[in-house]
């Protein structure tokens, strides 16, 4: 019995992890929508290339296939696009990429959307696909919604617009766990809002506590890496609701607080420079953030770049540094005072290990958590 033909539209971390989940069950191809080419994925290929970063470091362009052939023959297509426009334009970019994908879809295909939407967002996507393809939801087109958190290998919820897609996705190892697409949208939106508002509550109260020079007990040590992932999802929720609706208001207020955290980090770093009487020419700021440049959403990268650009108003030497460079001691300048802003728990742990082996290094540590604790 032949395996189902599956195409993943989007050469992203999430798309590649989906491929790994299905590699034994399907004839798999992953599409680089930027190059408009596709690459076959097999069990042997996955064993040799366990993650996308290692794969791309080998420049595997010789194995790419024409896009039209791959998508035209596919029985299943998973939508995992790489979004790289500025934050406010990312929702438009998602629709544009879905429109481009729709040009290649054929009758009978199952389209599975792995990019989060707000309540009702998939209805708009379905209408867009129907208009572009001329296919109608039902016998001609099947649709599923299975949103992925950044970097996750399994969807948060799995839902289908009709029984056919539910049955076929089950064969690939994705069992439906939500009543329908709308219920899945609401369940995922509730999860995103709950997580984001928890972080925002900590951020806003930590700001007040710092201004009042008091400390908060039992603070949850959540880093900017953890809550920056919510921005695209929150904007999708906000865009799906009428202005003035409670859910839209909650999502919008949360987005504003998270985006303002960039200014908060910059202001507190500037105060640190004043406290220590550090001259700009004798200071280097390292933003330690092990960013994944292949994630679907660009929220984390854009937030890191925003902090970097703002800090350069005060210190010229500001660099975003990955873990591998910390381990090799390339990140820090031995002739300057280094201010290291740790943006995730793993980045902080890597920095602590580095300092143990380099006790002579002149480094001040700032944790990019709501309290912005210094060490």
Task: Describe the protein in words.
With 375 residues, the chain is of the alpha/beta class. It folds into 2 domains: 5-178, Rossmann fold (3-Layer(aba) Sandwich), CATH 3.40.50; 185-367, Rossmann fold. It contains 14 helices and 12 strands. The chain has an 8-stranded mixed β-sheet with strand order 4-3-2-1-5-6-7-8, with helices on both faces. Strands 10-9-11-12 form a 4-stranded parallel β-sheet, sandwiched between helices. It starts with a strand and ends in an 8-residue tail after the last strand. The mean pLDDT is 90.
User: Which structural category do the helix and sheet elements fall into?
Assistant: alpha/beta
User: Into which percent range does the helicity of residues fall?
Assistant: 40-55%
CATH architecture assignment name of the largest domain: 3-Layer(aba) Sandwich
CATH topology of the largest domain: Rossmann fold
Query: Overall pLDDT, averaged?
Result: 90
């Amino acid at each position: 019995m032949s395996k189902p033909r599956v195409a993943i539209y989007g050469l992203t971390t999430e798309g590649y992890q989906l491929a790994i989940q299905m590699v034994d069950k399907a004839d798999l191809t992953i599409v680089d929508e930027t190059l408009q080419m596709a690459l076959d994925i097999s069990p042997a290929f996955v064993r040799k290339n366990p993650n996308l970063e290692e794969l791309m470091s080998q420049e595997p362009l010789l194995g790419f296939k024409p896009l039209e052939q791959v998508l035209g023959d596919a029985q299943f297509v998973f939508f995992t696009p790489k979004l790289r426009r500025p934050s406010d334009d990312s929702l438009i970019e998602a629709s544009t990429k879905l429109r481009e994908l729709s040009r290649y879809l054929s009758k009978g295909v199952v389209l599975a959307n792995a990019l989060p939407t707000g309540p009702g967002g998939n209805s708009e996507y379905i209408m867009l696909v129907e208009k572009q393809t001329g296919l109608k939801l039902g016998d001609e087109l099947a649709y599923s919604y299975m949103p992925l958190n950044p970097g996750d290998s399994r969807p948060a919820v799995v839902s289908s617009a009709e029984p056919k897609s539910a049955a076929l996705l089950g064969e690939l190892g994705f069992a439906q766990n939500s009543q329908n697409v709308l219920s899945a949208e609401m369940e995922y939106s509730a999860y995103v809002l709950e997580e984001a508002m928890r972080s925002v509550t900590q951020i806003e109260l930590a700001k007040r506590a710092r201004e009042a020079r008091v400390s908060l007990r039992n603070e949850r040590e959540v880093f900017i890496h953890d809550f920056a992932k919510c921005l695209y999802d929150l904007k999708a929720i906000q865009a799906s609701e009428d202005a003035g609706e409670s859910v839209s208001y909650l999502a919008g207020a949360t987005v504003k607080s998270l985006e303002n955290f960039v200014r908060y980090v910059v202001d507190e770093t500037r105060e640190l420079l004043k406290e220590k009487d550090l001259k700009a020419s004798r200071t280097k700021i390292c933003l330690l953030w092990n960013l994944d440049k292949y994630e679907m959403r660009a929220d984390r990268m854009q937030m890191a770049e925003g902090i970097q650009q703002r800090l350069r108003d005060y210190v010229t030497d500001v660099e975003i540094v990955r873990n591998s460079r910390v381990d090799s001691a390339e990140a820090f300048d031995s002739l300057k005072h280094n201010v290291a802003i740790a943006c995730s728990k793993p980045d902080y742990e890597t920095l602590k290990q580095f300092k143990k082996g380099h006790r002579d290094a002149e480094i001040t540590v700032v944790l990019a958590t709501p309290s912005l604790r210094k060490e």
